[in-house]
Amino acid sequence: MKEIIQGRRLGTGERVEFEYDESETNIVRKSGASCESNLTTHAERIYPDVPVIIAPARARVGGVSDGKEIVLFTDGLGRQQQTSLFHELWHHAEKRAVSADDLETVYKEVSDGDDWDCDYLNDPRERAARAFEHYASARASGLQLTQARKGTAQAVFERLYEGTEHAAHLKRRRQERWEPVMSWVRPLAALAAMAGVFIGIPHFLF
Fold first, then answer.
1. I need a labelling partner for 174 at 20 to 30 A (CA). Which of 81, 96, 147, 182 fits?
2. Could you tell me which of 54, 88, 64, 90 has the C-alpha nearest to residue 166?
3. Is the separation of the CB atoms in 72 and 38 below 8 Å?
4. Cα distance between residue 182 and residue 189, in whole Å
5. pLDDT at position 46
6. pTM value?
């Protein structure tokens, strides 16, 4: 069904109208189950132990992350929800997995982005989340990006998207749990090594 839509030309106040027929647009709608499978695959690869909850749509917000879980507000699953998922996965990793040095690298790099004349949109955390959602969306679309140089925001995004950042986070957590034990094991090991050297000296004298 055709309809006349009123609009405004970008960058000006000029009012325009155009004819739109939704039946002629090239839109292919995937099933909700297929979209959910897509989102699940990305979530489990990037950050497998964070619960992702689907909740009824709310005005002006697509998703939130509190460091424990991610909530996507939507009445249906599609490409927009994939973007929201990537955005919130960054916020989750930002709170749980990405190191302070890597965060500083990302925040510094994205600070040179577009000025949106809005404190919220210009906040380094939001800039970083948008940058990761764009990077991840490009990868999910099949683009073969060149391997990132170390010390860049893209290198941080690359590790997170491929799941290696989460694996490194788990390794650091294991090391932190064992550190109290190793703090007294190391001196004992050093003492045992010294004792072994001392006991072994007489054998060299004969």
1. 147
2. 90
3. no
4. 10
5. 95
6. 0.75
Dihedral pair phi/psi, residue 18, rounded to 5°: -145, 160
H/E element holding 63? strand 63-65
Flag residues of the chain having pLDDT under 50: 178, 204-206
Pairing of strands 63-65, 70-73: antiparallel
Contact 95, 65 (CB under 8 A): yes
* 100-110 and 153-162 helices, crossing angle to 10°: 120
54's tokens: 């689907």
**Residue tagged 């990006």 (tokens):** 145
**Entry field: residues in the chain:** 206
Angle subtended at Cα 23 by Cα 83 and Cα 34, rounded to the nearest 5 degrees: 35
The DSSP H or E segment spanning 91 is helix 79-96
Chain-centre distance for alpha carbon 111: 18
